[in-house]
Amino acid sequence: MIELENISYTYKDNSPGGNVALDDVSLKVKEGEMWGIIGHTGSGKSTLLEIMSGLLRPNSGRVLFKGEDITEAKSPISALKGKVGLVFQYPEHQLFEESVIKDISFGPKNMGCTEDECIRRAREAMRLVGLGEEFENLSPFEISGGEKRRVAIAGILAMEPEVLILDEPAAGLDPEGRDKLFDMLVKIKGTFCKSIIFVSHSMDDVALYADKVMVMNKGKCITSGGVREVFGERELLLEAGLDVPQVARLIAQLNEKGHSFTDAVLTVEEAFRAIYDKLKG
Amino acid sequence: MLRDITIGQYYNTKSFIHSLDPRCKIISLAVMMVVIFMASSLAEYAVAITVTCLIIILSKVELSYILKGMKPVWLLVVFTALINVFMGGGERVIFSFFVLKVTEESVYLAVSMMLRVILLVTVSTLLTLTTSPTVLTTGIEKLLKPLEKVKFPSHEVAMMMSIALRFIPTLTEEADKIIKAQAARGNDIESGGMTKKIKGMIPLFVPLFVSAFRRADDLAMAMECRNYTGGVNRTSYKRLEYKKGDWIAYIFMGALLAFTVIYHTVGFLL
Ligand SMILES: Nc1ncnc2c1ncn2[C@@H]1O[C@H](COP(=O)(O)OP(=O)(O)OP(=O)(O)O)[C@@H](O)[C@H]1O
Ligand SMILES: [Mg+2]
After folding, report:
1. What are B's interface residues with A at a Cβ cutoff of 8 A?
2. N or C: which end of chain A has fewer CB atoms below 10 A?
3. E strand or H helix at B35, and its extent?
């Protein structure tokens, strides 16, 4: 779906020579994949997402969407025609309309959909994120933070993007809200939305929901691949200021004490199975 | 582009100008403004430009940084210059075109207006570039202190100004984010006609105002939580004291002001 080839990007700010945010990053996202991107703060994750969705033009390198180079287009974002949707960090801060349904229809309206089509898509998006009909005519400023987040995500879903990109979608949500959000993502992958890419600071969320992981460190991609392979390289992750999921840490500690669990344990469910089987003998 | 606004930002280095007392710098700025406004002859402009350049050199602020701060006012400068060139009136016509005529006087007027705006923006930017907001506030407060006798809330005004300055970069950053977030939803402010552009502003301004109010509310709350009650009996962590450099600067600025005033009146009398 999306291919990044040797992307570099430097912010021109007040520091001499600018601020190198990305240095020769490549990534290939195939249809049906769920990617998690991890990295310490300031490692360039958000910049990478903005380049992927055509908001920023890389200084060098190419971005291919379905084989078509969008970096050459006059405006990369219009070349994508809403096919790549980006949900920003704290997206609730961008709400502006007088009612929830109007705000959600903003995207489709800009894409040139008819009134009826806008409403249909907005209702469908609200259903996907689990907002009941009673929200339609409320002001987006009088609902709770978690509900605002869902409205904002629905605003992107209403554009029916084939690739959905989310920047720390779970930041500031309670555990239940977080689980609901990721369950929703898993559910919509396979409808109009073919691939999902999300940034997270929680290794546990990435282990649980993503099937591919990319690790960023100081503007470089230090490794990427299947969840199991990447979380198998703990040293590399520690070097980048990250770690493996908590459960994997538990298993590693048990193994240090002379137990022999398999290393491929990432989620609570898997750990339960492994330990339960062991205890039963 | 929004991040280029340098007005209200502090450029952190050590220099003679940085080390001056804020009161001295504010008064010097006022003197410079008078000098720039009164300038009407080549000699006076030369003096104003020279002094401004001298301040830039002494402040050790990179020139590119100051030029970047000029970017937002460029349009204004060029626009006023053009209007002055074509509409300035005057006798000695250089060439004319329909109703528009360019005269020696209008060209002179346009160039001097342009110089004035550029110099004014430069010296004001230099004040904030070389003075950290907290120090600037203390300076303003001290200068306004005498007005307290007539019930003028000098501390509150100074506090408000410093908070406003402090929030310029924060809000531009926020605006940058919101522009991008709405662009991701297909909001296009770059192409299209005037009405389309204005319409595209609504999705930017509403969230920006909402966030500005939210920040203001949070800040007010945070200040109250730390027992802020205004200026009564508040002492200052940074004491302001005049040093040798300040007196030198005062004498220099005094001389400059005297020169301008005398030159001006003499010029009129002749
Ligand atoms: N608009 C900007 N102007 C200048 N520098 C920027 C800008 N945005 C980001 N940067 C810099 O680019 C680098 C990468 O930032 P980025 O926001 O992509 O990091 P991130 O991985 O998303 O961090 P976080 O986890 O904190 O969100 C950082 O060093 C940051 O300071
Ligand atoms: Mg980020």
Report:
1. 3, 65, 177-178, 180-188, 190, 202-203, 206-207, 210-211
2. C
3. helix B22-38
